[in-house]
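call fold(seq) -> tokens
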Amino acid sequence: MPSPDHAPSPTPRQRTRRHSWARVLIPVALILVWLVGAGLGGPLFGKVDEVSSNDQTSYLPESADATQVQQLLGEFTDSDAIPAIAVFVSDAELTDTELQTISDAVADAPSVEGVSEDVSPALTSDDGRAVQAFIPIEGDAELADAVVALGDELRDAAPDGVAVYITGPAGFSADLVAGFAGIDGLLLGVALLAVLVILVLVYRSFLLPIVVLSTSLFALCVALLVVWWLAKFEVLLLSGQTQGILFILVIGAATDYALLFVARFREELRVAQDKGAAVLAAWKGSFEPIVASGGTVIAGLLCLLLSDLKSNSTLGPVAAIGIVFAMLAALTLLPALLLLFGRAVFWPRRPKFEPEVVAEEHGMRKTGLWARLARLITKRPRLIWVVTTLVLLAGASGVLQLNAVGVPQSDLVLGASEARDGQVALGEHFPGGSGSPVSVIVAEDSLQDAADVLLASDGVDGVTVTSADSPSGSAPVTADGITAVGPPGTPAPEPTVVDGEVLLQGTLTDAADSDAAASTVRDLRSELDGIDALVGGVTATAIDTNDASIHDRTLIIPVILVVIMLILMLLLRSILAPVLLIITTVLSFGTAMGVSALVFNGVFDFPGADPAVPLYGFVFLVALGIDYNIFLMTRVREESLQHGTREGVLRGLSITGGVITSAGLVLAATFAALSVIPILFLVQLAFIVAFGVLLDTFVVRSLLVPALAYDLGKVIWWPSKLWRRGQD
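ret:
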């Protein structure tokens, strides 16, 4: 009888049995873990609005004037309500009876749920054909619902022939909320349907597309779970825009990584009869390119933390979290599913076990599009890369037509907009900036000096000071001081003073989101500089946002390039190859932006673009576009170690061509799905990234990079060992 210290070794049958159990238990455990995560994250899709905000001011730096003014407004007005402007317009001069009916309707507005009691009296225009009233919406109300209900109530009460519009900050905010309403359902549904169609066409399989999409959806659910709770505890700032990008990015990236893994798995099934061995070999072959690709995207996204705008700086970690779970799902959940299904996942086109055929191919495809393209590159490599470069440069010249200096708030939402129509009607009968004044916080003893600056401006129609003593909450300020409100002999009200400061508000003569209003506010800031005043309001917020976006664009783009180049140098063990890859990717980005500018101006007739559009386009195109070069060049390096650089280029192109093209189509389709959300920023980003990804996939990675690498030969690996000891 053996002693406990000398227990017998497991028999081969016991080892086989344990191995079999492990092969079943490990994938089942991984699937269960992801299933639990998805079960917790899935229900949060309909609750993102509970932890998100679309208030533009909340994204500005704390040091911005507009931010400081916004934070102090509540102390002067004792309210966080969002002002809505009700505009009543008639083709003919309104009668006394009609004016009374409108006044009664405005007075009854607080009966609508979410509407504040602090409703202003109805004000008639000089031409007698329009009436406006300021109706605040409570800060804790469901803004979109309250605005719709208010509009319906006022239209029901208005006289026949009188049109009613709800505009102002509340109206435009409600438009944005309505625009983002389709993110949870429509956007996700369109993106998933597009991916499903592409996968079915590529693989002609029933089960594999479901496995790949399940991997992507589980990754998104768990990513959303983490992001939602971080936003809940105010660690991250979440908006509808960030939410939409997160959804698309995770679905697209996870599917891309899954396609790379599946392609490698299919290769291994041809030389390995055991599905476990094939999964393990595919995991080893896919790990480096997937981690390098995801790491590059994460590094690029985290560069957004340098941004002054919180909308940019918070997108970085939110999207990076999404990429982390996309990689994890592709490297854990997908292998577990493939291990369970084996060859059956490809049914009805199961890969055959044919090591002899693979040996005859010598690891390189002899037929098909990519094999033919590889042979074409061997004949005229220099001509191909030179001509391709010239064509890309021609497309990039269109970037000079890009107008990315900001767009009016009224143009942020595409399609019909009651708030936009109301602003147009307001500008025809009242000062264009009514309801969205420029706000100036200044020391009490400088009140008159600041008021004089405002009154002297051609862009300001009138000036008031906040006063709790006034029935309307404010009192007019003229060159002679604060004017009494009421019958003759009524004393002038005292201004409300908070910590020695007062709040002045100037009604702008131009629409608050117009270039003319922006010019007025910039001039006021310059002239008030010596008085130590803070200038805020809707127009000032737009100015500060655009200025911060331009600053971010100038700072972050070079940083991203340096970071990605360093990662590529570590991955490829070379200096020249990463430099060339970065140059080709930047050239591709320039072409995408140039073509986009021409399409935006000449086809869609867009009013311009937000300054953040080029930055976001750069982040996604460079970080994601470099993915395809990573997929290609890591395989080229792997093949070059055995067969030489030029042969390695041809092998790498022929082997990865199909999977990278499929991945590019998937990513382009998912980003194109953003265009179903009628927000100008997202529609423009959808076109730029979708077009840019296709350009990277079909031109840069298929022609420019392989032809350039083939022409240079082993020198492309300079100064690594492969350059010194390898062969061309």
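DSSP finds 23 helices and ten strands in the chain.
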